[in-house]
Specification:
The complex is a heterotrimer of chains A (245), B (291) and C (347).
Chain A (H helix, E strand, L loop, with lengths): L1 E10 L2 E11 L4 E5 L6 H9 L6 E6 L2 E2 L5 H7 L1 E3 L12 H12 L7 H15 L14 H14 L4 E5 L7 H18 L2 E5 L3 H7 L2 E6 L2 E6 L1 H6 L1 H8 L1 H6 L1
Parallel strand pairs in A: 3-8, 3-9, 6-7, 7-8
Antiparallel strand pairs in A: 1-2, 1-4, 4-5, 9-10
Chain B lengths: L1 H32 L7 H16 L5 H25 L6 H22 L16 E4 L2 E4 H23 L1 H11 L1 H6 L4 H27 L6 H15 L4 H21 L5 H15 L12
Antiparallel strand pairs in B: 1-2
Helix pairs in contact in B: 1-5, 1-8, 1-9, 1-10, 2-3, 2-4, 2-8, 2-9, 3-8, 5-6, 5-8, 6-8, 9-10, 9-11, 10-11
Chain C lengths: L1 E5 L3 E6 L2 E6 L2 H21 L3 H27 L7 H18 L3 H19 L2 H4 L2 H21 L1 H4 L5 E2 L10 H28 L1 H11 L1 H6 L4 H27 L1 E2 L1 H4 L2 H14 L7 H15 L6 H15 L5 H6 L17
Antiparallel strand pairs in C: 1-2, 2-3, 4-5
Classes of the chains: A alpha/beta (245), B mainly alpha (291), C mainly alpha (347).
């Protein structure tokens, strides 16, 4: 479904992402992990069209999306959430999701009230229906992340890119969010590429994991293989622990 | 042909150096306070007309008038612009811009009401009379002095920013304000210093060019426009950019004047600025830091 | 073909297989209807004073420029400091074509629309190429440059003096009826602009517009066609301003760039947007009437009014509640209404 082939991105003299390749099949949940500064969010931005790759190609459903603008990529079926939630601050939760409903794909006859109806369905799905008329700047962190999820789902994606949705949530909220993502995947049938730092979540949720460090892919495999891989342990914890293994 | 080229080069140099003075204060405020000072034109009008008021109505001679005028300028920019407008409306930029523009308009029309063009305002600030011939081009000594003055003032400012401690703090503030605050810079005092520093070049410019450019209540507007074009072309708030852009725009004005018709100077400069914006989005030195 | 059905509380329009329902809820159109009726019967009270009639006509025209400006500011997510540019372009097009080629007002209207639209399309790339503050500055400079051009080609544009003697839109036998008719026409123009812009803002395009104003990149990521919308929201209000220019040419029958292009006129329009209440399009109407009244009453003071007018405007901005503005005195903003943040420096 998604194929990233030898993609590189340079900022000045620094290679944020260099020669990374991986692919996703339909229905999978892939985790993307790595130490800080490994280039995970840059990779996400490259797939979404926020940055343009300097080298390599990205293919989605057979189409080359390397140089496509973000809105066309969204219409093809890619959606993302943001590491630091970026809601539309002065708009209510309902309006924010309605933007996604209206613009996510071609909807020539949709009026604002129809869009609001569909948006309220997505809000109800993530549990924010009671807050639909609250301005986004008054929502708590958990609600903001759920709003991001609702907004991303409202554009009816085939591929959902999740960027560190668990950061800053307490364990109860974490498990709720995980439940939400699982039910979204089942109900809407979407593929998920998930960047995460919280190892417990990603190890249990993902079927395959890609590990980046300093912009390069250093490993790929199932969670069990990754956990036992000495290169990964050295990347995260340093040489001492790798030798001790 | 040679004469045209000589004229273009000499006038490009002279105008470029004078434009340095015009744009220096503007870039300074842009780079340090991050505010677009649409009331900058008021500095020129105040410089000329405050001096005239002190000399004609109060009856002082030139030097005391100049000193008093400097005080008035500093007081006006600190009290009216900085404390009255910038500090209060920092969060609402559109109000800030409109208010400074309104103050500029009010000052212009006050000058026009008190001393209309027919009142014959002129400043006796000619340093040396007479003209000079370079190659085949005749220029007035005053113009040369204005150009040299412009270069001197710019040099002093640049050296000040690079070598002195205050300059270092101001540069740090323009690059990263939170970091400068954490390092203990006293931001408000530096803002005052920046506002005072920004008032000096346009005043000097006005005093030097008044003899040959003429004094007119509505001259603040074209001078503001030139300063803005230079700032846009060079990159907002960047001194290096202002210096390069001043000479570039001086060159454009000189070329258009001597190769074509002088009426099209402003239009040509605007078109070239727009063209540069297409290729380099932030201007020539897009960094929005002072140096 | 079109079937109308009257139910107890709604009217249904059907054509083909499409249905449009208008729910009759007087609470939504009662107050606007009263407001429009008040404006419409205003001339009866001011009939003895013909110069007040001109004043309120001018007020209607100011509002007609300020309403598309608000739409443009939110839609392009940039602050336009030169709304009077297209007023000048449209006005000069209409005036020159009328004087030199004898085209009737209808054709000059078409020409003004085409010319304004063409130039706006040409300049529309600045909305996405120039960063926020640079865009504002370029829009600030453009009208002044156009004013320069009118002086350069003074033989065509007649610089200071302006063009005079264009054909009127209507002419009745009595001159006062002309003024009355012009007032109602300007009122109609303003109300049509208000209705059109209101419909746009309340539709699904309005939600996308708000999203663009809030965060362009996120909006782009959600599939909003940001570039196309920006071009539309730049060109359409420009054409509307051009039509106002055409209207001025054929009603006042004189047009001088010096009146409409410099900074003073621009500050008037911007203050109408700021003081009238920037959260509402309707705020432009009380704002415009206030500015017009202030301008006219200061004129009685003689030449010092040019100094007093900016001072009064400063006082208005400082002392009037800015967010809600004049319209907010009548209608308190509901907390879930969209209150646009006007960003000047935006990357």
């Amino acid at each position: 479904m998604l194929r990233v082939a030898n993609v590189s991105k340079r900022f000045g003299g620094l290679y944020a992402v260099s020669d990374v390749s991986f692919s996703l099949n339909e229905g999978e949940v892939i985790g993307l992990i790595g130490p800080n500064g490994a280039g995970k969010t840059t990779m996400l931005n490259l797939i979404c069209g926020v940055y343009q790759a300097d080298a390599g190609a990205i293919e989605f459903l057979g189409q080359n999306i390397t140089a496509m603008p973000s809105n066309r990529i969204c219409r093809l079926g890619v959606s993302r959430t943001y590491q630091i939630p970026q809601p539309f601050q002065a708009m209510t939760a309902l309006s924010g999701v309605a933007v996604g409903v209206i613009n996510g794909k071609k909807r020539p006859h949709m009026s604002l009230s129809d869009a609001a109806l569909e948006a309220s369905y997505y809000l109800e799905f993530v549990g924010l229906f009671a807050k639909r008329d609250t301005l986004a700047r008054h929502l708590t962190l958990y609600e903001l992340r759920m709003l991001e999820l609702a907004r991303a789902l409202a554009t009816t994606p085939k591929l959902l890119l999740i960027d560190e949705v668990m950061a800053g949530l307490n364990p109860a909220e974490s498990s709720q969010a995980l439940e939400m993502i699982w039910s979204a995947q089942e109900q809407f049938g979407i593929t998920i590429l998930w960047i995460e730092h919280v190892m417990k979540i990603i190890m249990s949720a993902a079927q395959r994991i890609v590990v980046l460090q300093y912009g390069k892919k250093i490993a790929e495999g199932t969670p069990q293989e990754i956990a036992a891989n000495p290169i990964i342990i050295e990347a995260y914890l340093g040489g001492r622990y790798a030798k001790a293994e | 042909m040679i004469e045209t080229i000589q004229s273009i080069l000499i006038y490009a140099f002279i105008w470029g150096s004078i434009y340095l003075l015009i744009s220096l204060g503007f870039s300074l405020i842009c780079g340090v306070l991050r505010i677009f000072h649409l009331g900058y034109g008021a500095t020129f009008v105040l410089a000329a007309y405050a001096t005239w008021t002190f000399m004609e109505d109060v009856g002082l001679s030139l030097i005391p008038s100049l000193l008093l005028m400097f005080l008035v300028q500093i007081g006006f920019s600190l009290l009216v612009f900085y404390r009255g407008v910038f500090q209060r409306y920092l969060e609402q930029e559109e109000v800030l811009l409109v208010l400074s523009l309104l103050i500029f308009v009010a000052i212009t029309h006050l000058a026009n009401f008190l001393y209309p063009v027919t009142a014959g305002v002129s400043l006796p600030t000619t340093l040396v009379d007479g003209t000079l011939v370079i190659g085949k081009v005749r220029i007035a000594y005053q113009m040369l002095f204005a150009a040299v003055g412009g270069i001197l003032v710019t040099l002093i400012y640049v050296l000040g920013f690079l070598k002195t401690r205050t300059g270092l703090i101001i540069r740090a503030m323009s690059q990263n304000l939170p970091a400068a605050l954490l390092m203990g810079a006293s931001v408000n005092r530096m803002y005052y210093v920046a506002m005072i520093l920004s008032v000096i070049p346009p005043t000097i410019c006005m005093l030097l060019i008044a003899p040959f450019w003429g004094v007119d209540p509505f001259m603040g507007s074209p001078l503001l426009m030139t300063a803005m074009l230079i700032a846009i072309l060079g990159g907002l708030g960047n001194l290096k950019g202002s210096i390069v852009a001043s000479y570039l725009i001086g060159f454009i004005h000189a070329s258009v004047s001597f190769l074509y018709v002088s009426r099209f100077m402003g239009l040509a400069a605007l078109i070239i600025t727009l063209a540069v914006m297409i290729y380099r989005r932030g201007g020539l030195f897009a960094g929005e830091t002072l140096w | 073909m079109v079937n109308l059905e009257f139910r107890r509380d709604r009217v249904l329009f059907r054509w083909g297989d499409q249905k449009y329902e208008w729910v009759i809820e007087p609470r939504y159109w009662r107050n606007p209807a009263i407001g429009v009726a008040l404006l419409a019967i205003l001339p009866i009270f001011v009939a003895p004073y013909p110069h007040i009639l001109t004043m309120i006509t001018t007020a209607n025209l100011y509002a007609a420029i300020a309403i598309p400006l608000s739409l443009q500011i939110i839609g392009t997510a940039r602050l336009n400091f030169g709304p009077q540019l297209y007023l000048g372009i449209g006005g000069y097009t209409a005036a020159l074509l009328n004087l030199h080629f004898g085209l009737s007002p209808v054709f000059t209207l078409l020409a003004a629309i085409l010319v304004c639209g063409g130039i706006a399309l040409l300049l529309s790339p600045t909305t996405w190429i120039a960063k926020g503050l640079y865009f504002s500055l370029i829009t600030l400079i453009l009208p002044l440059t156009f004013l320069d051009v009118t002086f350069i080609y003074g033989d065509i544009f007649r610089g200071e003096v302006g063009l005079v003697g264009m054909s009127p839109l209507l002419s009745f036998k009595k001159v006062t009826w002309n003024y009355l008719a012009y007032f109602y026409l300007s009122l109609l123009l303003m109300l049509v602009y208000l209705w059109v812009c209101d419909k746009i803002v309340r539709s699904r395009f309005g939600v996308s517009m708000a999203a663009i104003n809030e965060n362009e990149d996120v909006a782009r990521m959600m599939g909003v066609q940001v570039d196309r919308y920006k071009v539309f929201y730049y060109v359409f209000p420009s054409i509307l301003s051009g039509i106002v220019g055409w209207f001025i040419v054929h009603t006042f029958r004189t047009f001088a760039g010096v009146t409409y292009l410099p900074l003073e006129f621009m500050t008037k329009i911007l203050i109408i947007v700021i003081v009238g209440g920037r959260a509402f399009l309707y705020g432009a109407i009380p704002g415009a009437y206030l500015i017009s009244i202030v301008e006219d009453s200061l004129r009685a003071f003689g030449p010092i009014n040019y100094v007093l007018f900016p001072l009064v405007l400063i006082a208005l901005i400082v002392f009037l509640p800015r967010g809600e503005g004049l319209w907010g005195l009548y209608h308190k903003r509901h907390h879930r209404d969209y209150y646009p943040a006007l960003h000047v420096r935006r990357d």
